[in-house]
Design brief:
By secondary structure, this protein is an alpha+beta fold. The chain has nine helices and 14 strands. Bound molecules: biotin.
Length: 326
């Protein structure tokens, strides 16, 4: 009922009498008053005026499922949303849900995480009500070794959404870093539940610094607020990310990886650079020449040998960018 009341007030955009709401939604005046009090407690600014009724003045800066679903217009992404004020990690929840058979598109959201995790065993700092921390379950029909492509199209989707909502040009550092002006804005963690030749499900974890103040950011990191010098609407940004992920995922299913890779090349800052990739206590040094159809990075060393890297930490060596990929 709360969702219906909110929907009604949003559509009216003006005062509407309690009598009209009760009549239209089939709820008693007493029950309506109780729901309005609960919504106010959640942070909704609902003004009540004698003789005029109720008006929704503003919605709280919270990623409530009812706000995310409102005019989301996706086919399957975000149709089922699990929301936590505090959780250990949205990845933990989504992996459990995935194993219990939750459908493709199931979304897990949290306002803060006590054990947010990043790649390679790192932790992900998740200050409350400041960022976007989500995990999304997908069930793609791909081989486990093609899973990197999911990280790539998620990264593309995030850059597209950031551009649409804030106008900022974000960039991608292979494999999973989202940067603005060479500072880290966010990251993607893709966890796979698979057999040798079949992916059962994938949990895509996204962490983004949105309204973090400069002083709370670790060195080398940035937030959208720091870049734009204003608060960003987390709800609108999150909805746009979900829409773009669905759009690119469907595109990938219909057209294969080529179209996504083309977009990825436009956003990336790794190709053409001299890099060092650290993986499994060793490193490969050379020039990042391209990515292949599965999202692996192709690195050409000084002897001219090209190696494919599927995971690792990339450091860009300070060198002029060489445009050598086709
Ligand atoms: C990275 O850059 O290493 C990836 C960071 C991914 C962080 C997100 S926040 C939401 C989801 N839950 C987690 O515990 N991690 C991911």
């Amino acid at each position: 009922m709360q969702e219906k009341i909110l929907d009604f007030l949003k559509r009216k955009q003006d005062y509407v009498s309690g009598e009209e709401i009760s009549h239209r939604l089939g709820v008693s005046r007493q029950a309506l008053w109780k729901h309005i009090q609960e919504l106010k407690d959640m942070g909704y600014d609902i003004v009540a005026m004698p003789h005029l009724g109720y008006r929704l003045a503003s919605v709280p800066d919270r990623l409530f499922p009812s706000e995310i679903s409102y005019h989301l217009n996706t086919k399957f992404v975000g149709k089922k949303i699990y929301y936590f004020d505090t959780v250990s990690s949205t990845m933990d929840v989504s992996v459990q849900l995935g194993m219990r058979g939750s459908p493709e598109g199931t979304l897990v959201l949290a306002e803060t995480q006590t054990k947010g995790r990043g790649r390679l065993g790192r932790s992900w700092f998740s200050p409350k009500y400041k960022g976007i921390y989500l995990s999304l379950i997908l069930r793609p029909e791909i081989l486990p070794l093609q899973a990197s492509i999911l990280t790539l199209f998620s990264a593309v989707s995030i850059c597209e959404a950031i551009k649409n909502i804030t106008g900022l040009e974000a960039q991608i550092k292979w494999p999973n870093d989202i940067l603005v002006h060479h500072k880290k804005l966010g990251g993607i963690l893709t966890e796979l539940n698979a057999e040798m030749d079949e992916v059962r499900f994938v949990a895509i974890g996204i962490g983004l610094n949105v309204n973090n103040d400069k002083r709370t950011l670790v060195s080398g990191a940035t937030s959208l607020k720091e870049q734009k010098k204003e608060n960003i609407d987390r709800i609108e940004l999150l909805k746009e990310i979900l829409r773009k992920i669905e759009e690119n995922y469907l595109f990938f299913q219909e057209e294969g990886s080529r179209s996504i890779l083309e977009k990825w090349r436009d956003y990336n800052i790794t190709l053409g650079k001299r890099i060092k990739v650290f993986c499994h206590r060793q490193h490969i040094e050379g020039v990042a020449v391209d990515i292949d159809a599965d999202g692996g990075l192709l690195v050409r060393n000084d002897s001219g040998l090209t190696q494919k890297v599927t995971a690792g930490d990339v450091v860009h060596c300070n060198q002029r960018q060489l445009k050598i990929y086709s």
